[in-house]
Amino acid sequence: MSGHGREKDKIRGLTVPAEGPHQVQTLQEGIGFVGQIIPWNFLLLMYAWKIGPALACGNTVVLKTAEQTPLSALYVSKVELVHFQGALEHKEIGLPCSVRRGELGIGIRVLVTEAQVAFTGSTKTGEAILQSAAMSNLKPVTLELGGKSPFIVCEDANVDEAVEMAHFALFFNQGQCCASGSRTFVHESVYDEFVEKAKARALRRTVGDPFKAGIEQGPQIDSKQFEKIMRYIRSGVESGATLESGGERFGKERSRVMWRFADLLEDHNDQIAALETWDNGKPYEQAAKVEVQSWADKIHGLTIPADGLHHVQTLHEPIGVAGQIIPWNFPLLMYAWKVGPALACGNTVILKTAEQTPLSALHAGLPPGVLNVVSGYGPTAGAALASHMDVNKLAFTGSTETGKIVIQLAEKSNLKPVTLELGGKSPFIVCEDANVDEAVELAHFSLFFNQGQCCCAGSHTYVHERIYDEFVEKAKARALKRVVGDPFKAGTEQGPQIDSEKFEKILRYIRSGVDNGATLETGGERFGTGGYFIKPTVFSNVQDDMLKAQDEIFGPVQSILKFKDLDEVIRRANASNCGLAAGVFTQNIDTANTLTRALRVGTVWINCFDVFDAAIPFGGYKMSGNGREKGIYCLQNYLQVKAVVSPLKNPAWL
Ligand code: NAI
Ligand code: MG
């Protein structure tokens, strides 16, 4: 096996040197079901670019080919459809059959249930896809869209070489390249000569039967081709490939099957190339160069060993103007999490504070204009930032509902990338071997801290049945001891809620808990007569469906649920659209490890809660968000990568 990067079994997390007595590690996990949509201009290349990394990371893939060009992807996916001229023999590709699927079809219908979408195609369709993703489950979307790439010829250029290269940059693949050098800028001093020679080169271009050697240019994708292909599409739709899970495999095994997959692709290169030419009309000599590469050089590579006599490097550059919208529950903390990495990466920041909490986000010591703080309301100031054409990136923390709004504003304006840190319904799981007194104290802290107004609050306290009654008794006693009152007074544990709207909402949730038959152990009403204070409230005998229907309570209300065994609590904890954080309380390392791996959340705290550190990444699975804040992970939110390519003129020395 040569020519392949061997990285599939090396996807690794980090161990983070945070301050204090905590062991911190990160796990890199597959996202789940990945939907991928590819265009018709580079079929197998697009196929490989998309499925390689998705499978290497342990995801299950549903790939929709372009309606014009279904053949090669279906063939390598071994969907048994293609039997033209009886010439093709099917060999077992070696991936578990449900792990990747070639899907046929027109449009974007298939996407609504996938966990992640990767799309290559037109900007207009990209916008449509982003919006269907935002309106369904906020699945993250990566886009590789069209370009209008400049090709710049300076006055000192070697005109003959420049002509040849500009010709290639545009005419390659019948001009059907997203990166094609479609705007050739030529310096006036060499312009006339360039035009003359470009014309001569174009006249020399060989156009014709794409199977013939020496042909440079085949036909365009056209309607006749399309009709021919439609027959295959219809038979594909009739055969109805179904989606099953199965992408979760250990790195080693995944690596093995992927290498087998790669080998077979290489072995079948000729058949695949023929299919590409049948499909697309591209010159056979240029079709289907199977190439499998590692992910490592794409994440960290600054100098890239590309094939051929070219020097390739990447530059990590700031995105430009970063717009940031923060909520009111941790004004200064949110400010720091947002502004720090954006500035560290060289961006200019416009930060909108929450209307409730404009005061703390001051700034000093920076060059004028670098950090700009705007106070204002969401639907006016916030929306203006999200939809501004000159803002290049948006980072948002707040409610899921508003997250959906800002992502749509970003799409409708300039497609700025958006990172989201949204709400959660975090489980706090107390196992039967836990020290009950410690668990009670920690569960209390995980929920009541900050008046219960934490995105990662341990709002679903699951307690093993064997210690349930004791736990409830002690949790109630602890809540009764909680000191509520003037937040400026020493010793006060709990102040008022943020405003009357949230205060009323919390009291409504409490009433509905009582109406639905949960047992109100303590609290349940306002504290005192003035201000938005709420008595620390504990419910027992809470059923999952009581909490499922509602969004975050976001107040001092603890709900204690009973469980019998680990599998059950894992299933119940994961049966949520959210996946921000979880607490696990146990003395047993095996139980801790099982829960750590099984819970679909961005942070797992074992025998602790709310441990934050600048080095520890924070963010959500599922609808709790996209992207990570803090740690080295947050830097990629604020950087873009530029590939720089130049020819090497003296290969003898390399
Ligand atoms: P929100 O998400 O509406 O507000 C957060 C930020 O978004 C504020 O700066 C606000 O001005 C801005 N905003 C609001 N509407 C906007 C729009 N149309 N365009 C652009 N920006 C907009 O949250 P809200 O209404 O204060 O609280 C509602 C619920 O959200 C809470 O009860 C809680 O459940 C949840 N929440 C979650 C937070 C978290 O840390 N994940 C923080 C705050 C609230
Ligand atoms: Mg709101």
Lay out the secondary structure.
Blueprint: E1 15-16, E2 24-25, E3 33-37, H1 43-56, E4 60-64, H2 71-77, E5 100-103, E6 116-120, H3 123-135, E7 141-144, E8 150-153, H4 159-171, E9 183-186, H5 188-204, H6 223-239, H7 251-267, H8 269-280, H9 296-299, E10 303-304, E11 310-318, E12 321-325, H10 331-344, E13 348-353, E14 371-375, H11 378-387, E15 393-397, H12 400-412, E16 418-421, E17 427-430, H13 436-448, E18 460-464, H14 468-481, H15 500-515, E19 519-522, E20 537-540, H16 544-548, E21 557-563, H17 566-574, E22 578-579, E23 581-585, H18 589-598, E24 603-606, E25 621-622, E26 625-626, E27 639-647
Parallel strand pairs: 3-4, 3-6, 4-5, 6-7, 8-9, 12-13, 12-15, 13-14, 15-16, 17-18, 17-23, 18-21, 20-21, 23-24
Antiparallel strand pairs: 1-2, 10-11, 11-27, 16-26, 19-20, 22-25
Helix pairs in contact: 2-8, 3-12, 4-5, 11-12, 13-14
The structure holds 1,4-dihydronicotinamide adenine dinucleotide and magnesium ion.
Describe what you observe in this structure:
It comes from Vitis vinifera (Grape). Keywords: Oxidoreductase. Belongs to the aldehyde dehydrogenase family. Residues 8-249, 252-644 form the Aldehyde dehydrogenase domain. The active site is at 144, 421. The structure is a single chain. This protein has 654 residues and is an alpha/beta fold. Helices cover 33% and strands 18% of the residues. The protein is built from 18 helices and 27 strands. The protein has a seven-stranded mixed sheet, with helices on both faces. Strands 14-13-12-15-16-26 form a six-stranded mixed sheet, with helices on both faces. The protein has a five-stranded parallel sheet with strand order 5-4-3-6-7, sandwiched between helices. It is elongated and about 90 Å long. It starts with 14 loop residues before the first strand and ends in a 7-residue tail after the last strand. Mean pLDDT is 79; it is low at 1-8, 78-98, 100-114, 224-251 and 290-301. Bound molecules: 1,4-dihydronicotinamide adenine dinucleotide and magnesium ion. Residues 378, 399, 402 line the site of magnesium ion. The site of magnesium ion (MG) has 3 residues, from loops.
